[in-house]
Amino acid sequence: MELIQYIAFAVIKIALLLFILLTAVAYIVLMERKVIARMQNRWGPNRVGPFGLLQPLADGIKFILKEDIIPDSVYKPLYIAAPMIALILSLISISIIPFGGDWYVAGYHIPLQTAAFWTGSGIQDINIGLLIILGITSLGVYGVALSGWSSNSKYSLLGSLRASAQLISYELALGLSLVGVLLLAGSLSLRQIVDSQAGSLLHWHFFGGLQFVAFFIYIMAAYAETNRIPFDLPEAETELVAGYHTEYSAMKFAMFFMAEYCNMVTVACLATLLFFGGWHSPLEGLHLPVPPIWLIISPLFWFFVKVFFFIFVYIWIRGTLPRFRYDQLMSFGWKFLLPLSIANIVVTSLVLALRS
Amino acid sequence: MIPLSWYLILSAILFAIGVASFLIKRSIITIFMSIELMLNAVNLTFVAFANHWHQVSGQVFVFFVMVVAAAEAAVGLAIVLAVFRTRETLNVDQVNLLKL
Amino acid sequence: MLHTILFLIFAGICVAGALNFLLQRHPVNSALSLIVVMGSLALLFLLLGAEFVAAVQIIVYAGAVMVLFVFVIMLLNAGEEERTRGSRVALFLGVPGLIALFGLLCWTLSASRFQLGQVQIGGYYVPTQELGIALFREFLLPFEITSVLVLIAIMGAVVLARKERP
Question: Using CB atoms within 10 A as the burial measure, which of A166, A203, A208, C159 is most buried?
């Protein structure tokens, strides 16, 4: 495979990913509004198009056409750069996610993943995929911190100070909660982690690897990382107006919004890949009679079903739980999640050492 | 295929810029950051030599440098906070008394 | 060829970022250009086959240490640094001294260019596993000592940053 073909494939994949992801983000927003509305005994958006299905389009047009206000007192270069940083980083981290096995079309080897390493003669799986995602996630603080600082407004600054402290604190628990899975899989490559869970439901790290404590820690820390309820203190609208994006309007605000939902999708994908067997079907060991075409579609089907479920859980929790107080948030992160994740590592490695 | 010395010259450039900004800058925080820049330049040399000698030890050493740099940054920034609390300035020229 | 192009791009970004770090007056701008330097250094590490070190460079340096710096700058609301008059002696001795030191380094390195040899992509690649084995067998004692150092640093930071009780 030549370099030119590699670049051409990469460009096509990036275009496809952007299209699918941004459409998905728009419809996740709609789904969130609908589901929350049903939970609160309302109807939700239902005026634009049948069942409100064109609402995301209307929202998008509104965001583009609105006046883009830049307040006088902001520090302009960073004020403009901050939303772009947030969006670009969230898009990079989702490009590492593999969402299926490999396809061989007309002699070409196409891994179902946007990013891949070029080895000089062919493409290779990214063998530190998980670390790259963790690194990009840890850079995500800058979008929030810089937007709050450059806005030159007290609400923004308070929001971004809270956000940076929160993100730094929960990153530790997030990283440590994944170590148990890494010990079981023995690899940092997302593909190999998924392959180590092949088989049936019982081979998934959540059930077979007994990583449910790790999953609980992961999902809590990830909710804090994406600034979602019950950890949405950086943008708590009842205390801080809107936190770090108080001073943003129109498309710049939309960039923050898209970045947040892209991060939600990344978190859901990671939960699927690491704990719930990725694209492997839960019924794999049963050898059910299925048509051959199903074998090609089934990985994508199961992957998207699982991701959809985790996004639904996000919305569900938003509809259920109240917000934490700030000191509760910090002590929950440092005094509960962090020791628990370390204990999980110790227990997992002990069990592994005794078993071998 | 590029000569190893290019990497080393790059790290020399970065180190020299780090030294220069350590000497020129007057804000405590920026001075701390120039130390980080120098450490980064040294890390590049370590990795380049690990590549040259085909030894893992060079990369292991980078780890230790990173850990020490992180520890140093934590303690250093705590000192900066303490200095700012007592003197209300970040300019090193005005921090010239041991005792207030 | 590919290696040369990639090296020149990232080395250029590195040097430009470092110069910007030197020339900017505001600490936040300096911090951001330093982050750019660290990011492109991580990519250079990747070219040298040190993928785990590259990832750790991003996670630890760009994602943790520099976040701490930016956080402190925001917390203290550090403004543009004031210019103070530097001493003449430092200017006349320091700048030529720095240039001489730098010239000497570059001269030494380019003189020994042929002994140092060439680097190529994938010429030496360290899997994470190998690095871990080296870290926990050969370097176990330094590793443990570093952990004690980190513990001391944590306690020191807490003690120093704590508000004194009235």
Answer: A166
Nearest CA in chain A to C28: A146
The single-letter DSSP state of residue A322 is P
pLDDT in tens, C82-137: 776 666 777 788 778 878 887 887 788 777 777 777 777 767 778 888 888 888 88
Query: In this model, does residue A315 exceed pLDDT 70?
Result: yes
User: Cβ contact (<8 Å) for C53 and B74?
Assistant: no
The model carries a pTM of 0.87
What would the DSSP string read from start to end of A147-176? Answer: HHHHHT-HHHHHHHHHHHHHHHHHHHHHHH
Domain hosting residue B62, numbered range? 4-94
Domain hosting residue C49, numbered range: 2-126
Q: Is residue B59 part of a domain?
A: yes
Interface-testing mutation among C24, C28, C43, C60, with chain A (most A C-beta atoms within 10 A): C28
Chain B CB contacts of C90 below 8 Å: 23
CATH number for the domain spanning C105: value is 1.20.120.1200
Chains A and C are in contact, defined as 3 or more C-beta pairs closer than 8 angstroms: yes
Q: Are residues C90 and C138 in the same domain?
A: no
CATH code, domain with B82? 1.10.287.3510
Angle at CA A37, nearest 5°, toward A36 and A38? Answer: 90
Euclidean distance between CA atoms A273 and A35, whole angstroms: 25
Looking at the complex, report in whole angstroms how far the Cα of residue C55 sits from the nearest Cα belonging to chain B. 11
Angle, helix A338-355 to helix A212-225, in steps of 10 degrees: 150
User: In angstroms, rounded to a whole number, what is the distance separating the alpha carbons of residues B53 and B71?
Assistant: 29
**To which residue do tokens 């859980």 refer?**
A313
Domain locations in chain A? 3-281+289-355
Q: Which of C51, C121, C122 sits opposite A128 (nearest CB)?
A: C51
Residue C63: which of A120, A139, A157 has the nearest Cβ? A139
- Written as six digits, the tokens of C71 are 């956080």
pLDDT at residue C165 greater than cutoff 70: no
Is C127 in contact with A161 (Cβ distance < 8 A)?
no
Cα first-last separation, chain B: 58
Mutant choice from B56, B86, B89 vs C, greatest count of C C-beta within 10 A? B56
CA–CA min distance B97, chain C (Å): 18
Q: Could you say which DSSP state residue A127 is in? A: T
Q: Is A66 helix (H, G, I), strand (E, B) or coil?
A: coil
Does this complex have an ipTM over 0.90?
no
Long-range residue pairs from A280-285, CB within 8 A, at least 24 positions apart, any chain: A280/A194, A280/A197, A280/A198, A280/A199, A280/A203, A280/A204, A282/A200, A282/A201, A282/A204, A283/A200, A283/A201, A284/A198, A284/A199, A284/A200, A285/A199, A285/A200
Model confidence band, residue C13 (pLDDT cutoffs 50, 70, 90): very high
* Chain B CB within 8 Å of residue C123 CB: yes
Query: Which chains does chain A touch, 3 or more C-beta pairs < 8 A?
Result: C
Specify whether C78 is located in the same domain as C111: yes
Q: How far apart are CA C144 and CA A345, in angstroms?
A: 18
Q: DSSP letters of C111-129?
A: HTHHHH-EE-TTSS---HH
